[in-house]
Every structure is written in structure tokens, then in C-alpha cells.
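Morning run. Coffee first, then this:
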Amino acid sequence: MTANIAAVVFLLSVAFCVYTVACYPLMLGLLARLHGRKVHKGPLRTTVSIILPVHNGAHWIGPKLQSIAALKYPAELIEILVVDDGSTDGTRDFVDHFPGRATLRFLPLSRGGKAAALNAAIGQAAGEILFFTDVRQALHPDSLANLVDCFADPQVGVASGELMIATGADQEQASVGMYWKYEKFIRKNLSRLDSIPGATGCIYAMRRSLARPIPEDSLVDDMYLPIGAFFAGYRVILDESARAFDYPTQLSSEFRRKVRTQAGVCQVIGQYPALLGPHNRMWIHFVSHKLARLIMPWALIAAAGATLFMAEPWNYWAGGAQAAGYGLGLLDPLVADGWPLKRLTSPARTFIVLMIAALFAVCIVFVPARKLWGETRVSHTQN
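And here it is:
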């Protein structure tokens, strides 16, 4: 590789990363401001099937059912389907002794994974609207009603709620939370423009008529189902007034979750190849938001490799800048929480870990999808 070619590779790689991280979100915000579309909400009251898949959720199922019982929605219009995916920790005991305010059904299954559990519930659901939620996150009492109101707009096929993550007790958790705020900024503007490429798995609703069987090895059912509705001609929107609440997560848990979700993006592209073609009215946004995230770690590797062949003194400047950024991330575990330097090292480490997770997404080619599932560990301590 000549010095000139190396310089071009370096500049293109850096430009790609800058576009993905900064330029695209700014452009998206401007487009949403200029061409945003409103959702014409209800009020609407129709039958709802609440689908709650659970595996070994004894610790969470009681508070979750209380959260569901507190929803401000007519009880006579609700059925609750608790789908037990082969739990071994007594989850059923909590469900059997719960004094539900609506029709509560327990569907015991042998261990088959989340997609199989959802398919079983969808097959038995009677509601016009399916409301999907997970066992850990608490729901705002108005969340279900606010989501259902969105379906008064005939263009809306899927309505996702917003996940609110509590403030972390340390800088590491705060940095993960900061990334989630950045991600929500993109989702909100995509929703205003047209559609988001998936829903928030712990709080979203869709028209029963649009639900389709989920491949049982699917890693991101909350992308697979909404994208099916999107290609049927409907919008997939984010409603900020429908909220669920979760505890902050450590970076190690976020890494495992991100490997699964990024591998799931690869999987969804294979399931819906039209995402990359002209039949996707949001293709430029899918490429800039989802596909670019998968490519970015490879662009960073290309930039690092090109640096070795660049002419002096540019190779020193480029190499020094990369070394400083990666060095801050590597230094982070040694920097005590509360030190001013932690405000630099923790975000740098978070960025590096997320890039490694995206790099590992290719493991979907070599590893059975079920191997990528794991429990997300959260912290109950918050500020």
C-alpha cells in the first residue's frame, strides 16, 4: 500500500465513522423537523392481549403483574397471557396466587426460547391489539392506553413505548445511559419522519392482523414483527408518552446484549433482504443507522491499518490520536469513580466495548442463535 492510498483509506474510514456517529443524527434531526409527520391519536378502546414471556422470572413476576394490574385501561378489554418458557424457579407459583384484575392465563411450555414463547401466545391471543412486554420493567399506568390511542391512526401498524433507564450509581452506568439517550434521539426523529426499524422489546403494541410467525431462532423479535408491519405499508412509531422503567446496567451486561442485538440485525437483513433495496422507503436511514453500526468497527480497523503506511509526520499524528482514544478506554478500569478523568475514560471505554460488540456480531454465522441469549444483569442501586 502506497502512502497516498493509505492516506485515502484513512480519511475515508474516519469520514465514514464521523458520518455514522455525528453527521447522520444531525441530518436526521433536521429532516424530521422539516418533514415530520404527526400521528393522529385516539381516544380508542379495543380488546388487548398482553403478552408476557418469562423464563425463571420469579424475582420479577410479582411486581410486573402488579404493574400490569395498575394499567389505566378497561379491565374487561384485557387478557394477560403469561408464557412460561420452561422456568424452573417457581415462577408459576407467583402467577397462580396473583389476584388478577383481568383474564390471566398461564401458558406453560418446555424450554424453546423467546420466539417460540411469543408464537405460542400470538396463536392464542384474542385481542385486536397485541401488547408485548418483558418481565423486569415496570410500566407507567397510562402506557397501554397511550399506545392503543396511536392505532386510531390507520397508518400506524406498530407503536413502541419509550424505555426510561434510571440514573446510574457510577460513571460506567451513566455512560451506558448516555448511549441509550443518544440512541433514543435517533429513534424519536426516525419516528417523526416515518418509521423506526424496530420497537422497544419491553413495551410495544401492534395490530393483531399484522402479526406473523417468528422464526424460532430469531434474536430480535422486536425488529422482526415491526419490520413485517412496515413492509405491509404501515408506520412503526415511537410514542414518548408510553413509558417503561428499568434499572441501569453494567457495561459487561450491555456488551452481551449488544452482541445479541447486532447479530440480530444481521439476521433480520437475511430475513428481510428488501431492507437494503428500493422497496424500503427508509433504506437510507436503515443503512445509516443499523448497517453502518455493523461496518464501523471494520472502518476503525482499516484506519488503524492504513496509519502504518502513511507518510511522516501524518502517521504519527493519526497514530497518536488513535492511541490516545483507545488508551483512555483501556485506562478506565484503573481510574477511580469520581475523578475528573473518569468523565473521559468511561465514555471512551463504552464506545470501545460497543464497537467490539458490533465486531462480534459476525458470530451469528458460526454460533447457534440460542447461544447468544443471556440474562441482562441490572443494578438496583441508583441516584
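The mean pLDDT is 90. Good start to the day.
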